[in-house]
Amino acid sequence: MKGEKKAYITLYLTLVLGVLLSLVFVLLEGIRNKTMRTEVESVMDIGLYSVFGEYHRQLLEQYDLFFIDTSYGEGISDIKRSEEHLQYYMNENFHKRGVQAIIGYRDLTNLNCDNVEFENYMYATDNQGGVLKSQIVDYMQNKNGTDMIENLLEEFSILNTNNMSIDISEKWNEADETLNKLFAEKKKEMTDPETGEQIPIVWDNPADRIKEIRAQGTLGLVLPKEKELSSMVIHPEYYVSHRNVFEGQGTLMHQKSLLDEATENLLLRQYFMEKCGTFMSDKKDSVLKYQIEYMLAGKESDIENLESVVEDILHIREGINFTYLISDKEKVAEAEALAWMISALFFSPQIKEVVKMTIMYAWTYAESVKDVRILLDGNKLPLLKTFATWNTPLSQLFMFSAYLDRYEESSTGMTYSDYLHFLLSVKEEKIILYRFMDLCEMDIRITEGNQYFQMDGCVSAVKATANISSGYGNGYKITRTYTYE
Length: 485
Hints:
Elements: H1 2-52, H2 57-63, E1 68-69, H3 79-95, E2 111-123, H4 126-160, H5 168-184, E3 189-191, E4 198-200, H6 206-215, H7 219-222, H8 261-275, H9 291-297, H10 302-325, H11 329-345, H12 352-376, H13 416-425, H14 429-445, E5 458-470, E6 475-483
Antiparallel strand pairs: 1-5, 2-5, 3-4, 5-6
Helix pairs in contact: 1-3, 4-8, 5-12, 6-12, 8-13, 9-10, 9-14, 10-12, 11-12
């Protein structure tokens, strides 16, 4: 009887133990599955963190931008390289190299990343350069804060409220055409009222001499004598603005900025002014020395870019100066008196008004040339002219180039850099962004190991999917989105 009782207890314990062991094994398997899922998520995050930790060092050092260069210094950019890097980093963390040498060690997850695919990714050039712009605006906002933004908005608002659309050159041509037409209607000869002799009439408008000077180009007039020009020349076809670019998916935008468009654009331009060289301030170790001028003009040489920008500033100054000149009754009277003398000299009173206008245009040009010279000398220039700040008297008009270095310096007004800032604001944004990326490529390619650098191969955000397998038959698929924020 005692033996039978012990047998019942043994059978009971066996049945209970079987149930308990099944429960334990189910719990262990559940724990292992949970551990696998947690490990997959952690390793995916670590892998992406490692990939994004491979940001381009020179791009960060020179421009404070975070992008992954998918060429990795090995040739043409290819997003597959970044996918391979992510897969490598994940497997390095899954396989735990080194701990396998421990006696009795056994990998209870045995996970492996079989493949990685970037379903979505964004290059710097995507959205017409909008990806690059987003990162620049974030950088500037975090760097400077709201006080600087408000100061800049106030400083440059005056430029946007003034009419700079007056084309003096076009009006001057129209006046000359009218003048030539009027003069052609007169006889080639006129009778001298005192002697009765026939006097040949040869038309010679003194303002035409200034127009001839203008036709030869303004740059030679406005350059400071001691300033040596850069002779750098590039081949634009080698750079991103002149080639077919790689395209990402373009849908992984960064967190939307809370700033309005005007403020974003202001920060963008301020960033360019801080990071790029100009005629007044060369950037060290750069290919082109006048970089902002290149962004505005897009020419092949520093000289051509500077010449184009000088003409743009001259055009702005002409519009402002002519508006003032026609409002100054004293100066208008001076021009009218000179025009009367010229028309009387040629016995043509009907041309007086047209001659007066050509003198006004020539006077405007002469004053504007001196304005640009003031700016290139590194001085400030009041935006709007007054009687006190007008630097070219009519007596100097026909020899104005000899007096370009004679002017009153001002402690207030705008500098050459301020005008560049304004010119950037009226240029199409895509053009400016792409030319800036040209400059990035130029300057980074001359650094060691970066000869293949391409801005359209630089990634700032990815949506990555990884397929994971386990030696225990489990399979996982995980997707993560990662960006530089």
